[in-house]
Backbone:
């Protein structure tokens, strides 16, 4: 559905969580915002440079075996549990809550991802289309604490060349991406709000499904945008507007809400 935000020229399209693709494969419980693998819907194929947003839960001692990627920027946002990453560039790492891992696949890489330890791992797998093809593959990690994200938007991914972005493998500040994409993360307390100012003409907002796997109508955290558009965990919003437009993201529920905000060209 389309909803005009009050007192704003912005237009929002809400996609409810229960309308996402994906399936329960036993070892993997997954939701797909965009067409992916066996889920194909031409209405939901991409948004700006954003091509994949999967919310994955991988059971203990299972995972994605070694497979290939090329010509995508691939990043993982860890929600809970531990994710073991290995790749053909020689990187081996266990990622935990607060970690952001980015692989610029470029001309081609091979990697595997498995649940590490005795608990399910819950993470978001995000792909974007690079502005330049044929790049040399690279790997980056960043860490952002819950305290840093508490009731404020933290820039965790930004284009190479943007202020504060370094191409060091590990560093403070946002992870570099070869796409016109900036990603912010926040954890909003009940009755609190944050305000996002558009740095482009497209915005995508995703409410992380932190309260547990639920294939029905969203429950858990509740969010209201610009005083009128209400969404819940797992729901997504696709927004269009003008540079400088503002979005107030308000937590109207009684538990913290973890929210990702993408600025996109």
Residues:
């Amino acid at each position: 559905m389309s909803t005009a935000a009050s007192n704003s020229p912005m237009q929002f399209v809400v996609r409810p969580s229960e309308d996402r693709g994906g399936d329960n494969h036993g070892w993997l419980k997954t939701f797909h915002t965009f067409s992916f693998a066996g889920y194909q819907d031409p209405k939901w194929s991409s948004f700006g440079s954003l091509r994949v947003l999967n919310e994955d839960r991988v059971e203990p001692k299972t995972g994605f075996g070694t497979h290939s990627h090329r010509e995508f920027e691939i990043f993982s946002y860890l929600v809970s549990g531990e994710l073991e990453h290995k790749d053909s560039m020689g990187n081996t790492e266990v990622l935990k809550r607060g970690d952001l891992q980015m692989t610029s696949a470029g001309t081609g890489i091979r990697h595997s991802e498995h649940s590490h330890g005795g608990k399910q791992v819950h993470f978001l797998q995000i792909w974007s289309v690079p502005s330049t093809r044929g790049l040399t593959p690279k790997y980056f990690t960043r860490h952002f604490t819950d305290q840093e994200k508490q009731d404020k938007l933290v820039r965790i991914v930004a284009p190479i060349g943007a202020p504060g972005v370094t191409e060091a493998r590990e560093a403070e500040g946002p992870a570099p991406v070869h796409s016109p994409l900036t990603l912010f993360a926040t954890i909003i307390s009940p009755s609190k709000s944050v305000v996002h100012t558009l740095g482009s003409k497209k915005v995508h907002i995703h409410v992380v499904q932190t309260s547990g796997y639920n294939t029905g109508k969203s429950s858990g955290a509740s969010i209201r945008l610009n005083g009128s558009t209400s969404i819940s965990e797992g729901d997504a919003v696709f927004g269009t507007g003008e540079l400088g437009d503002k979005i107030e993201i308000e937590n109207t529920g009684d538990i913290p809400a973890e929210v990702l905000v993408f600025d996109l060209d």
In short: The chain has a mean pLDDT of 95. The radius of gyration is 17 Å.
